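tool_call predict_complex ligand=adenosine-5'-diphosphate
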Amino acid sequence: MLQRLLRDHINYVKQCILRVAIDAPLDVCFDYRWLLEDGATVPLVGQLALVPFGRRDVVGVIVAMAEDSEVAPDKLKAALAVRSELPPLSTAWLGLCTFAADYYQRPLGEVMLPGLPKNLRAAKPTSLTRALKKAALPQPTHDATPGTVHALNPAQRDAAAAIAAARGFAPTLLYGVTGSGKTEVYLQAAATILAETGDTLNPAQILILVPEINLTPQLEANIRARFPGVAMATLHSGLAEGERLSNWVAAHLGQARIVLGTRLAILASLPQLKLIIIDEEHDPSYKQQEGLRYSARDLAVWRARQLDIPIVLGSATPSLETWHHAQSGRYRKLELRERAVKDAALPQVLLIDMERDKPVEGLTACLLAALKLRLSRGEQSLLFLNRRGYAPVVACDACGWISNCSRCTAFMVLHKLDRQLRCHHCGLEQRIPRACPTCGNVDIQPLGRGTQRVEEGLQAAFPEARVLRIDADSTRRKGSAQAAFDQVHRGEIDILIGTQMVAKGHDFQNLTLVGVLNPDTALFSQDYRASERLFAQLMQVAGRAGRRARSAEGSASEVLIQTRYPQHPLFAAVMAHDYEPFANDLLLERQQAGLPPFIYQALLRAEARELAVALSFLQEAAGCIEHDGILINDPIPMTMTRVANVDRAQLLVESVSRPALQAFLKAWIAALRAMKSRVRWSLEVDPVDI
Ligand code: ADP
Ligand code: ZN
Ligand code: ZN
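tool_result ok
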């Protein structure tokens, strides 16, 4: 008896139980045993482990060392390997992921693992050792000449000093007009913080988030020139795997002191994180729209609070959520009211009434004249049209046929260069029909225009001009967007035409004219966020003009907006460059209508072959548990009901209390899973597209 106890005891100390989070659609972690033979390393919480899962071997994160397991000892599988060469992920990082999993109602493994470099998740991490060695080496100091450090103007100086002096959790809105030099403020604040801790054992890390991959190269070059001795790493989805791994490792080891990335970087491991900066914080791309539908901005604020560090949210047109916090004093507001470059004034915004000045090929006479003037002066122009392709639809005049997608509630878009009709929602492609498929009429016509058609029109109007189109179609090849923007910066382009890709953040030096081609659809959208977004977009794109001081003979910078509704109040606010009253009005409207940020929402979506099935699932879901204090709306079809032959419906739930909503969602998810319906469903917390 005694002997047996003793033997059990020895067995007990010789093995431990690892609780591992795995990227699987199950909301649980899994237990594995690990033998502690003589000399074997003792696994640590936060390390990665290779474990058998179903018929595969997968990598997971050890989230706990368990005392014992609910799984019977003889059923407990053994972990295959522990990546002990990689220092463990910190408790703070595990805490961040646990919060995100809880808040967005997703499995923990689904938060932790997809963000890790592929190589770390592979059964054999071939280049890990190399990446670790490389990151541990002293980082090459760039012998590039230090970048020009502008003498900050007083407003910039105050803002940078306030940010660098902040201690503890201090969320700050840096509210500065386009071209007010927010970047300089970030970098100056970063410099102060880096200098303070540079000689200590634990030098600070700073995370800078930007909304678009295409904005990283300019800022990266800027930072490298500015901080020649400081290691920096970028993290975004455009990196090659090897680079992604070594950059991630450099961040994880604390070697990279500045980490610049897109939204996914918010889940990076940054053990010495001391400051977070989110540039263009209002940008919709901070919201992930599939899988774990997180808001990188919201997670960043949570992370800053968790670590008790300052966070800066920068924008010329802050999101109403952030604006609301600033107005109510929860966030400090720092303002930059003027453009930083001396004599670079904000552009004048003018409206062109399309009822009076009828456009030819989408371009009004007034806009053509303005383009011509820029061409004659060797200045650049930008035309903004948020619609790619040649024409959004093809139609037959004779019988009324239009190019609907057979699988979606959407039109097939004409892509003339590829001689195709293409659905932007399901990817369906077809050759352009020679004649109307219904009546045989050969004279079928493109209706409306996209960037390709405007490009064609521009070339016809200005045969000598160097016209460049930048949109998702023209930049499919890796590196091509960067090459295109470089061309613009080098002055090899006269007229740039593009979608929102060209509207964001770029610091164009010789651009004095912005033309906005078709903002009207957003004016009357059902989506209550449409006007907030349109305003931000117009201010952003307008902000690309006139960023350099004007020479004596140069053009004053202008923004020309072609519209059929020049009386619309939104345009008046854009013309005044005044976000404040506009934002305050919108906030008031939201408050009166009971919309975010005054209430909290979640959206249950269902997909089925037939709409009725999706709707009846939602109907059942609506009644499946108690819901005191929660408003459950009626299930409705989504605006774009059918995508790829699947019908989609949604159910909005709301509450004035975030904790109440969270508690409800937790119980609801469990009940929904128990329904075991065959309908595919997903839940989104804080949805933005409703
Ligand atoms: P924002 O991000 O606010 O739109 P940027 O940070 O891109 O503005 O700055 C706009 C331009 O002003 C850049 O070309 C930058 O180099 C320049 N700039 C910034 N601060 C100063 C300053 N204090 N003096 C002169 N130029 C400046
Ligand atoms: Zn026809
Ligand atoms: Zn389709």
